[in-house]
Write a structure and sequence with these properties.
AMP-bd_C_sf; GMP Synthetase, Chain A, domain 3; mainly alpha; transmembrane helix; 3 strands; transmembrane; elongated; AMP-bd_C; AMP-binding enzyme C-terminal domain-containing protein
Length: 246
Amino acid sequence: MAFDEVEAELRRHPKIRDCVVTEVRIDRSRDMVVAYVETTERIEPAEVRDFLTSPRLRISDVPRAVIRVNKLPRTKSGRIDRESLPQPPVQPGRLAGLKVPGNLYGDSTFWALILFPTVIFGLLAYLMTDVIWPGSTDLSIVPQPYAFLFNVLYIIECLAFGLGIGFLIMGRKPLLRVGRPRGLTTLTHLAIVWLLISWWLQDNSYRLTAKTDWNSQAWLVYVFNVTLMGAAAVVAVFATRNRLRD
């Protein structure tokens, strides 16, 4: 993304009067993109962060630092004097109090928050399986090591269900930061949730359905198989679509 596009987004903020986004050399081998903002009133770095990580911008387009200045330096002709801009302290990601959010899969806070519902709901799913589907996990006639392998599979399915519930609770905001349209982001959020939670529901339902019970088989195919294919297609569109531009 060109810097002028980021500047245009920053100027949309009601407290930002003017700004400039530029690349600053912080050591011999590293450059860093910095946004200098001239504001009409006090503005918190977190407010700038949230604004920049709206669906208009991808995380990769967000400047590594935002520095507030009382007045942007200008040349005699009125143009911004980039050479007179203050040099930022060398602490990427935390300059001027701004911590640039990590990406969806590298944000340790996100995964720490999602771990709790994954474990809790995964455990509940494991305990409730034989209550909802009596006999679906009966492995009394299955020889080893296959009985052990199936038990491992049941645990994985339950954890996937718990992860799906956790992603339902925590996943929308990280997906919005990717920069896709809100409608597509919502569909993708729900598609990922369904791709995760459906295995617990699907596998237990299939195990108790007779192969010649065509009514139940057809119902299961359309409820699970068809919707899973659709969910995968939504995720594929989300992953390959260009970000929304104004």
